[in-house]
Amino acid sequence: MSRAIQVRVSESVVRTIHVEDGVASPLEMLPILPAARMAELLATELAALGFVRDGTTCRRIEADGTEVTIDLEAATIAVALGAAAQIDESIERTVHTGIERQHEAEAGLRDSVMRELDARLADQAEALRRRVTAQLEGKLADLKVELDRAIGKATIAALTEKAAQLGQIESTHEDEAGNVTIRVRL
Amino acid sequence: MDDAVPAVAASEHELVMLARGLIEAHTSEVHAALYRTRALPPEISTTCARLLGETLAHVWPALWRRGAIQSGASIEAGRAGQAGTLRRGRIWERHAPVGLTFSAATLRLLRWLVATPLAAPRSTLAPLVAGPLTVGDQVIVYLALDAAAGTPAHAAIAAQPLVRAAPLAWLGFAEALGTGAPGELDSLCQGAGAIVVEALTVELARRWRAVELGKRAIEAPAVLIALGAAQDASLGGFLAACDRHRRRDLAGFVIDAVAPLISRGIAPMPARLAPEATLASRAAARVAAGALLRGVMTWARWDEAHRGVRFIDDDYATAQLLLARFEAIQPAGAARAAAWLADLAGLAGLAGPAPPTTVPPSAATVSRP
Questions:
Q1: What was the ipTM of the complex prediction?
Q2: What pTM was computed for the model?
Q3: Cβ contact (<8 Å) for B351 and A136?
């Protein structure tokens, strides 16, 4: 007759996970002046928004860690956000079995515990990733408005430069809707 | 007696009837044949081979009946350094009868279709090994995919290496072939291959348009990314091949596919990509959705070049034909396609709901005790 025993398995894991999400998109700028000049004008506007220029890129890292990078040469914007978290999980499981099956029971239980730990880690990493994605998604609308405004100002500056090349600017008028009228004496 | 009904084995009868069903587009008969399975002897009889040959001889008229009966025009590519010329009329008037050749691959495909239980799990099916394909073989592959469309057998057929090796299958069913890329598509821009594509223009346009409409309902970014990659590889490769062989007219189905969508303002914007997916994958999926529109952009570049061809230039007649083809969407339509592509690539489509507006204190409801 076999003797009944209780097998207890305890496993724990401490892991640092890092998740990241981001998008890249082209910037739409009207080719009023040569591309290099348009990029300069945009860089000026971006500097006013807190972007730091490094060669052909302008970068801004926001308080929540969102990194906005604008490539002036390629006319693209990349927005990325990452997050890290330390996960500490432990699981303890017991099973009753006959003493002659102790090793098989322990091995089976340990496998099952490890699988469950892996699943919990994956769930937590996915939850963190979703938080990052939601945070980033919420920022895009504001960022787009901000960038559209900067591109608009750069476009007006480009138009003004172009007008000055054509003749003498007599007056510049911007209405409430943002439409700009430049009168030029040729 | 000469008028005696040829006698073949039951399995050979199945083979011949399947070939007839595919070529004559008897869909219900083909469906029934696809879901029956019959053991086949390793060789077919000479009578069966003769009957199959007679059946395959009807491929050209069968292709013409698929929408190519209208009068039209096609470019006959000139030799190196020479201008192309135009041929007008119905397709059988425009082209000399070029013999479609069928290799052993056609017989292997037909035998596989008869012998394989296509309703069984795909992993249990014997693979149909790839091999060199003639244009005729490619047509039979295309017809098999077309006949099985909408049935579970479609995916099973599309997964076979022999089917995936057929450029015509990629051009017609890129969405079913998924990951991977077609080989050289040059065989579809010259000789019999070019005539086949001309004959299938109406059908290709209809199929590409249907896929565009379907994109709006796709929610999984990975599905849209795979579809876009397959379409980009197929269409990009085909347009480049058309250009190389001076047969831009063969790409007319791109215009036919997109013209009704542009006129009705139906963009291939996925309506609701899975919100739990990463922004990166959703962004990639939106860009991938624009594969056909990128084909339109290629046409727009061609159109600019065609507008520059003068009356005294050698290619004037062909340029005029292609200008007339592009008229269905006109530069305004191409501009709209470009705007859709910009929307697909832009940040606006990915942005979450606008942040809640703060209610000014003066407008806030004040509750009194």
A1: 0.82
A2: 0.85
A3: no
